[in-house]
Design a protein that fits this description.
Number of strands: 23
Structural class: alpha+beta
CATH architecture of the largest domain: 3-Layer(aba) Sandwich
CATH class of the largest domain: Alpha Beta
Order of helices and strands: EHHHEEHEHEHEHEEEEEEEEEEEEEEEEE
Oligomer: single chain
Distance between the termini: 45 Å
Helix content: 10-25%
Strand content: 25-35%
Low-confidence stretches: 63-76, 103-107
Shape: globular
């Protein structure tokens, strides 16, 4: 079997109209990941809508229409194979969708490109994005200074904008020396995949080269084992086979494990008999592995989707209540205490009640704006107290961040997203 390339979740963020989608479209097209015919169709559509020149943006945006029709809650995701990585590209329209996507589990970004237009420089949303990237755990950042064609490809302007962004990333804790700045013209294709002739003064990597310069994300093997269960199958001759993806830690054959909350909230224990991935037997599974496994002592009725497996000496945390930092994305009116929507946490879907609104925060800095607000509206960031209506596994952001994030859904919409910052064990 061919060795799979390491996987990289890559998000493009930046102020509206600074060229994120165009950069992504250009990247996919110039690297041969989107064909001529698709671009031609999009070009016609762009001209029809009076948006000539938007065809590259449409590569990602055509997926957004599906979202508006409510087909999927995910953002536009595209697979992209670089020399080194298998990349999932996440294109984030405004910060609202972007946050939702950052937080809802698997599509957690490892690395980010922040796109800033050379003519505008740092804008309000640019600040918000940088703060969010940092709080949500994106370790590696590269900055694209786009629309260089609009400033006559001047190195001085590039340096001015670069200085502004460096000051900004420093305030949230990125080291400017570790952030690569790339001047580009996404519309014309300069420095995306092909080197730009107009910017011969720039000696650094193109966008596609930078993707391979990002360090491979570390697998959280040193954290306790957490494996949220996606499904449970009954296979003739083998018995009960739960299936799921290892989020953190390592699972080996012979391990003594516990699945929580399981039937009664107390969990069920057993011993790992076998582990299989892509129809091959494994001795151990590590983060990112999607596996099927069998456990001696666990029956079909014992476990279900939404339960989480861990080692008996560090069982998954079942909570009575928890405190979370949330951001309200799309609530039809206002969010008040007593609200009981469905929380999507790893593979679990559990109705939870928001019992207290503790603080309203400034989404650009994280500072407290107001203690005990009466209500929250779209765009507000806040700290709230939450009580699940049935036993639920969640972990603290500071301890096992991969198990701390969630989305709040109601009537087919993602209303809010957040992460658990504190908890009370059941």
């Amino acid at each position: 079997m061919a060795k799979l390339k390491p996987h990289l979740n890559l998000i493009f963020v930046g102020h509206v109209d600074h060229g994120k989608s165009t950069t992504v479209g250009r990247l996919l097209y110039d690297s041969g990941n989107v064909d001529e015919q698709t671009i031609r169709k999009l070009k016609e559509k762009a001209e029809e809508l009076g948006k000539g020149g938007f065809e590259f943006a449409f590569v990602m945006d055509n997926l957004k229409e599906e979202r508006e029709r409510g087909v999927t809650i995910d953002l536009a995701h595209r697979k992209f194979i670089s020399k080194k990585y298998e990349v999932t590209i996440i294109d984030a329209p405004g910060h609202k969708d972007f946050i939702k996507n950052m937080i809802t589990g698997a599509s957690q970004a490892d690395v980010a490109f922040l796109v800033v237009a050379a003519n505008d420089g740092v804008m309000a949303q640019t600040k918000e994005h940088v703060w969010l990237l940092k709080t949500l755990g994106v370790q590696q950042l590269s900055v694209i200074i786009n629309k260089m064609d609009m400033v006559n490809y001047k190195e001085e302007r590039f340096n001015e904008v670069k200085k502004g962004v460096e000051d900004l990333v420093k305030t949230v804790g990125y080291k400017p020396a570790e952030v690569v700045f790339i001047p580009e013209s996404a519309l014309l294709g300069g420095n995306v995949v092909k080197k730009s002739d107009e910017m011969s003064w720039y000696k650094g990597p193109t966008v596609v080269e930078q993707i391979d310069l990002f360090k491979e994300p570390e697998k959280p093997t040193n954290l306790p084992l957490r494996l949220p269960i996606q499904d449970v199958y009954n296979i003739v001759g083998i018995g009960v086979v739960p299936v799921g993806r290892v989020e953190t830690g390592v699972m080996k054959i012979g391990d003594k494990v516990i699945v929580m909350p399981a039937r009664d909230g107390k969990g069920v224990t057993g011993e790992v008999k076998s582990i299989e991935m892509h129809h091959e037997q494994l001795n151990e599974a590590i983060p990112g592995d999607n596996i099927g496994f069998s456990v001696r002592g666990i029956g079909k009725k014992d476990v279900a989707r939404g339960d989480v497996l861990g080692h008996v000496d560090s069982p998954p945390t079942v909570v009575k209540e928890f405190t979370a930092q949330i951001i309200v994305l799309n609530h039809p009116t206002v969010l008040t205490k007593g609200y009981t929507p469905v929380f999507h946490i790893h593979t679990a879907q559990v109705a939870c009640q928001i019992t207290d609104l503790l603080k309203k925060l400034d989404p650009a800095t994280g500072q407290t704006l107001q203690e005990n607000p009466d209500m929250l509206k779209n765009g507000d960031a806040a700290i709230v107290k939450i009580v699940p209506t049935k036993p639920l596994v969640i972990e603290k952001q500071g301890e096992i961040p991969h198990m701390a994030r969630f989305a709040i859904r109601d009537a087919g919409n993602t209303v809010a997203a957040g992460m658990c910052i504190d908890l009370v064990k059941k």
